[in-house]
Amino acid sequence: MICLENIAxxxxxxxxETTALRGINIEIEKGEMLSVMGPSGCGKSTLLNIMxxxxxxxxxxVLIEGKKVDQFGDIRxxxxxxxxxxxxxxxxxxxxxxxxxxxxxxxxxxxxxSGQKRxxxxxxxxxxxxxxxxxxxxxxxxxxxxxQRVAIARAIVGRPEIILADEPTGNLDSLMGAEIMxxxxxxxxxxKATIIMVTHDEHLAKQTQRIIRLFDGAQxx
Length: 221
Description:
By secondary structure, this protein is α/β, with parallel strands linked by helices. The chain is built from 7 helices and 10 strands.
């Protein structure tokens, strides 16, 4: 599903050069669920952004389903992200002025789809994460765990094959974190979604099929 070949990422300014990633080689099979672990600043989020086509590597190749994406234009990359990839962030990134159901609908606005179809899919996604009674609420009326459920519903509303989760339980207590993890495990088990999760939690990571560890931008296992 995803193949990274000798990926490097270097950030440059006028006075300093910072290597975020170097020599990363990873193959992720369709339907696999894995964790990315390592200390803060080791390149985990940068790696996830490159997998999600939000950032381009300084060197190496990114392949999605066997196709090199480095030559794709911005419009083609945006379409690929919208249809293939769902994103879950630690800070939720919900829009406070929009209701729960409107937040979930957002990724579908960029598709040629009727408003009725968008609403149906959004309500279906909210049902899956147990928030069918909160559709008209606003994010600031929800708990942290509920907001993360909304974020998951938004990530899966377009039925993506790949889900990238960046510290999805990082702002939650252990009970809420376990519930969010159960939802992700269910998406992998029932929908066969390919899931890559960045986490600091060893207990959660061990529930996935594989752990990739980074240190100072390099892959150590």
